[in-house]
Amino acid sequence: MRIGHGFDAHKFGGEPPLILGGVTVPSNIGLLAHSDGDVVLHAICDAILGALALRDIGFHFSDQSPEFSGIDSRELLRRVTQMMVDKQYKLGNLDVTIVAQTPRLSNYIESMRKCVCDDLQSELEQVNIKATTTEKMGYVGRKEGIAVHAVVLLMSEKANAI
């Protein structure tokens, strides 16, 4: 087994759409980013890369590279999933916490879970996504941006082969 933790935060200020967990969330503002700004998928990618000891999302998909300008973060997650498969690991489970004062996300959580499961080639019961606020404290509470924590457990496929 391997455990990885991912964290990412993006500042509000970009043009819509606001994309979280592969889902377009109605908003009059987006997140500032080199890619599509999907802070949820970025944190998930970092958690998986961390569990695999493969550094971080910025190492593999540099914000200095024109190739990744505006890229759909689901494509990044699919590439990271392939790295996981290539290293002979599979998802045990994933737990994600979105920290956002705005917008309200409860109506979009199940759609996010389905997108993430599709890209991770996993079952719905392996992926949990939840959202919370900071009770108006800090940069999230002041509605300056969104932060996300992700924790992943990866299981070795090699162990099953023995």
UniProtKB/TrEMBL annotation:
Binding, a divalent metal cation: D8, H10, H42
Annotated positions binding 4-CDP-2-C-methyl-D-erythritol 2-phosphate: D8, A9, H10, H34, S35, D56, I57, G58, T132, T133, T134, E135, R142
Gene this chain is encoded by: ispF
UniProt keyword annotation of Metal-binding present: yes
Enzyme nomenclature, EC number: 4.6.1.12
Catalytic activity: 4-CDP-2-C-methyl-D-erythritol 2-phosphate = 2-C-methyl-D-erythritol 2,4-cyclic diphosphate + CMP
Ranges for domain 2-C-methyl-D-erythritol 2,4-cyclodiphosphate synthase: 1-154
HAMAP family: IspF
Lineage: Bacteria, Pseudomonadati, Pseudomonadota, Gammaproteobacteria, Oceanospirillales
Cofactor annotation remark: Binds 1 divalent metal cation per subunit.
Keywords: Isoprene biosynthesis, Lyase, Metal-binding
Record-level GO BP terms: isopentenyl diphosphate biosynthetic process, methylerythritol 4-phosphate pathway; terpenoid biosynthetic process
Ranges in coiled-coil conformation: none
Descriptive protein name: 2-C-methyl-D-erythritol 2,4-cyclodiphosphate synthase
Subunit structure: Homotrimer.
Database matches in SUPFAM superfamilies: IpsF-like
UniProt-annotated site: Transition state stabilizer, residues: H34, T133
Pathway assigned in UniProt: Isoprenoid biosynthesis; isopentenyl diphosphate biosynthesis via DXP pathway; isopentenyl diphosphate from 1-deoxy-D-xylulose 5-phosphate: step 4/6
Superkingdom to which the source organism belongs: Bacteria
Family: Belongs to the IspF family.
Cofactors (names): a divalent metal cation
GO terms of molecular function: 2-C-methyl-D-erythritol 2,4-cyclodiphosphate synthase activity; metal ion binding
